[in-house]
Structure prediction request, 325 residues.
Amino acid sequence: MLKVLVPVDGSSNSLHALRYVLSEFRRNPAIDIHLLNVQPPFSGNVRRWIDRETINEAHVEASEQALQPIRQMLDEVCVPYSVHLAVGGKASSIAEFARQLRCDHIIIGTARKNSLMRTIEGSVTNQVLELTTVPVIAVAGDSPSTWERYGIHLGVGGGLAWLLVAALE
Amino acid sequence: MLVFSEGAARAARRVIDRLPWTRGRRAGHALIEAMQLATESGVCTLDLGTVHHWLSPEAAETELARRGLATSAGARALLDARGFAWRLHVLMGEPAPRLVELTEALGSRGIVVGARGLSAVEGLLLGSVAQQIIHNARGAVLVVRAPAAPEEKVAC
Prediction:
């Protein structure tokens, strides 16, 4: 049985990944689906003043909220799955769970970005690829908006032009 | 570089090989993964492809097919040994856009690609075909990194 880890955060990109998993499941029902939601840890100050139980409850609540549309999609088509919650860095948690669960594949939704946007904004998919040797299936998510596509380039170009003008003066 | 896809018949996964097999340990792992997926899906036909730098029309006429056959020799031998049928596509130009175009033209379901595991900055500076494909392809991209083990241990 193919064991797959699907990191989900309720975003449209993770829904794209889930749709891919469902299409694969229809072809081959022998897929063991593990959903993973990664919550960012609270800051040290919060952890110092709030007890651990309350923090854990907050993480579980945030996770349940993020997983709700995903669970609904899977329950509607009666697909079995397991759910995992991690607190920490997204990429490192995904790589660690994939290793611990001995997954065959990680299936992750990814935004369609160009190299500059990836460098500036960072890409969880790229970070996961750096950290794991488990094969990763990247499922194309939504196309970037016009602002995302051109705004960053214009901003970087404008900044460089301004620096050049300032240096010449 | 390996790509798998599914054609109009929605049956065949295709594999595209770009890296010279002798240096293509990443490609080898990607091909093994592609074959595993193909087996699980009951598919027995895979397409191999290879992307090369631009050549003059005269050179392309004689050289392109030869280079494509040479770079994909190992992959084809492995597919033959495992009983997979294959098709070879030899392309010229920038690898990532050409492979994405090809998979779209073939009606691919996805792409299988080997990777070095570069960071975003390294990918930008050194050029990561896998990263370019991931962020430009419209379908699913399976990225396979070779484990850091001696080459002999990963021989098929």
About this structure: The radius of gyration of chain B is 15 Å. The helical segments of chain B are 25-40, 57-71, 73-82, 95-106, 120-127, 129-136. Chain B touches chain A at residues 33, 40-41, 110, 115, 117-121, 123-124, 130-132, 134-148 (CB under 8 Å).
